Amino acid sequence: MTQQSLLARYAEDIFWMARYMERADNLARLLEVNEVFARDRRGAHNWDAIIDLNADREAFTKRYGTAKPTSTAYFYMLDRENPSSIISAVRAARENARALRPLISTEMWTHLNIFYNELLEIPADATRVPNMARFCERIRNACHAHSGITEGTFYRDQGWYFYQLGMMIERADQTTRIVDVKYHTLLPSAAEVGSLLDLSQWNALLRSAAGYHAYRRVHPSGIEPSAVAEFLILNRRFPRSVRFCIGEVSAILSQLIFKFQLSRGGSVAAVVDRVHRRIEETDIEKIISDGMHEFLDTVQIDLSEITSAMNLAYFGHDTIDEESVA
Amino acid sequence: MKQQQHSGSVTSEGPDILPGYDPQGFYCEITSLAKDGSVADTALLERLRTLDGAELSARAEDASRELYNLGITFTVYSNSSMIDRILPFDVLPRVIHAKEWEHVEAGVEQRVETLNQFIRDIYHDKKCLKDGIIPADLVLGNKNFRKQMEGIDVPGGVYVHVCGTDLVRDGEGTFRVLEDNARTPSGVSYVVENRHMMQRAFPDLVDDIGIRSVEDYGPRLLQAMLDVAPPGVMDPQVALLSPGTYNSAYFEHIFLAREMGVPLVEGRDLVVDDDKVYMRTTEGLEQVHSIYRRIDDDFLDPRAFREDSLLGVPGIFEAYRKGNITLANAIGTGVADDKAVYAYMPRLIEYYLGEEALLPNVETHICREPDGLKYTLDNLENLVVKPVGESGGYGILIGPRATKEEIEEIRAKLIDDPANFISQPMIELSVCPTLIDGMVEPRHVDLRPFCVTGKSSWVLPGGLTRVALKKGSLVVNSSQGGGSKDTWVLTD
What we know:
The structure holds two protein chains of two kinds. By secondary structure, chain A is an all-alpha fold. Chain A has 15 helices and no strands. The two termini of chain A are about 15 Å apart. Chain B is about 30% helix and about 25% strand. Chain B has a domain of about 60 residues: 2-Layer Sandwich (Dna Ligase, domain 1), CATH 3.30.1490. Classes of the chains: A mainly alpha, B alpha+beta. Chain A: This is Alpha-E domain-containing protein. Chain A: It comes from Pacificispira spongiicola. Chain A: It holds the Pfam family Alpha-E.
């Protein structure tokens, strides 16, 4: 019996389980940061940006009308009808985990099962503004516990690498989205250059990506828009920067291809190499002058092409290929 | 409930053994141990005597929560939403002596050997039909008879690789067979998980008592699957085929796949090419040789059986027919699950093995036979009437507890379609002390031992003890308020 082989469906489920948990984590941080730090001059929040960031304007307006903190928070936390809410992401992760129970550790499954069952019991008022930060912290802690349990208990075969791929691709995607939405709305108009509002918003952007303290270490002198963008996109050591994540994706994929001899990954590698080069061969000045949005948009398309290539190469979405019969 | 008393009771010593506990005249699985007086019994009874009901209840509640969190659950559907339920777990074990177990073990193996010969016979020479041991139409007209299986040889002549034989104990303490489950008997995961739960939550009960281990089930099943793989395959790939996460027994499928260390596949993971079966892996297609399937015959292959099945694998039957894949259990074993066929089992045991049945049947009246029908109609108030093809405890009429209307309703059905029914006397199922709201009360139990057959047969020590938690109830099925207990087979 070949112990090394992994069912295509398992590979796909584990890839998506990792993505959904990463997504829940990012969303919780984004909501929390928006609540705590992102106030404008009059102390009001701008919740519109979060809705735009997830491209959910139409779905939201249909259900709630104009964005208000409580409805936005509920929409993104506990609304089971909203496919991009935290609870929907956790439910999807748990459904994947349920199918993966023969493969993953009992600890991973049990933790996710308890986490999801707890979310079902949380009353709607946990999303009210005074309770929100605590709720978000709970979500983030659970997501971190998930990563920790996975790191500490998951057997290091192919499955582990597919898990890492999912996590890194989702993380890169989330970072491009945060920068894409915030960068333009935060770019100072002539009248506001250097104002306090400006700074607190850029701080919030860094915090949304869990990068505030790391940024401070690299740039003790202060916040500067292009430096923030460079940090989030191109920094080599910050674990949520786009460059870092893509570098990881490339390294993990090589492991699958060479260590596990999954030669079908060649087509995936071609896409990964392209986006890897795109990141390695540029700098922040060039990105800004060519257009930040255009750059990030291209990266997002690249990321979704990686996933499509994986569908065909590894997840069995292709039709039966007679020649691949061993 | 009306008290059932019977003569020849061996359990008059109730109150002395467990304070406040009265088996009410039924054969009790625990208090009857006292007559042996071996060291293990004494230690166990001493422990049970000093139990603090309230504390036990609190720990039992923790144990239930743990089962839920671990996802040791079955799924029920209510208003189109999925709800995970645990199988209620009773903390007071059911105990079986080494000697008694030896007898059960031999009886189960005898039954499985007979089933395998019988099923091979009905799909080959049909000798038992020609010799008039069992009515031909009962077998050939059975809805689980698969004509497609005629003339197909299966490796080792094994059809029933996993058998669950439901046993009950009557008022005299005699084990009797209630039914055979030769298709896909479930519940073995609870046997193992109940033991784990017992060891975690009640270490003080388990300490220093010699109990036979139940850990070996997975490796034994894997070995059986390797034993029956198509001949000549060097390194057979085994898989477990499940209908998927929505199946109510999905936890058990996970459990078994994990314990065997084989992939849990669904129909969509498998493809048939050139009459060989492959699974889709990240490396492409990889051949599978031996499948423990938890999908019914009907849904296995839309080309051979039900065309509307989306769960199965198109073409797998042809691969099976050509001997390129082994399926366990074999296709067409459902004939043996029929309650009318069951009635002929003692004669079949004698026919094939030349032996008397070690485990007697419950006395059964076959309503397809005029005498049986007449007796049944004349004694409906005293009999249990069962439809022959149902499982899960559905459609059963318990005469002594039925209303006049219910009796007349079944009378009409019997006259209309007698072949669909059998009847049996009401068995006074044995009881076992059970924790109910902090008090120890008697509740009726049955026993399902699991027998695994590859090159040889092996019976898991113990099996699943199901307990009817409702006072006075005789129905142990989980779908109808049943729970389970850890089952201890004592070492010598």
